[in-house]
Amino acid sequence: MRILVLNGSPKGENSTTVQTAFYLQALHPEHTFVFLPVGQRIKGYEKDFSPVRAALQEADLILFCYPVYTFIAPYQIHRLIELIKEDGVDLSGKFASQITTSKHFFDVTAHRYVEENCFDLGLKVVRGLSADMEDLLTPRDRRRPGCFLTRCFSPAARGFS
User: What radius of gyration do the chain's Cα atoms show?
Assistant: First the structure.
């Protein structure tokens, strides 16, 4: 499976959120992970959307990965969704999910925002992972990301019987 990670954090690879995606990549070497640093390069993607379009078209699973600030996703994720809609790239039938990190202060609002926009784009949504900022630090909490990705790959979550 080809997984496109749309890293919406302005911190890039130093983001706690994207570290969870890197952890999933290490757990599942059988899948191909492609990372786009939209949080750091959104202005460039406004000028040339073709790298994003190509990555979206090749992906089987689109994984929005971002920190939740007060109530909502960062601007870069909002703008990326606008650019996807403006471009008109056909994503119907593809799968989408999300990984967020926060202190769980209304992170459900951010998740709903991304989910509703995914539905608008014709994507099939698998419930995302809302992680704590420190989840990767303890063995008990490191199980959550692994369970999340297993859910993304399960036939039931993907609409197969």
Answer: 15
Q: Which amino acid is at 50?
A: S
The region, left, alpha or beta by phi > 0 then psi within -120 to 50, assigned to residue 104 is left
Q: Indicate the number of domains in the chain.
A: 1
Q: What is the pTM of this model?
A: 0.84
Q: Are 136 and 19 in contact (CB under 8 A)?
A: yes
- Cβ burial of 54 (10 Å; 0-12, 13-18, 19+) is exposed
Structure confidence by residue, pLDDT tens digits, 19-74: 888 988 988 898 999 999 999 999 999 999 999 999 999 999 999 999 987 778 89
For tokens 């995302």, the residue is 128
Does 83 map to a domain? yes
Whether residue 107 lies inside any domain: the answer is yes
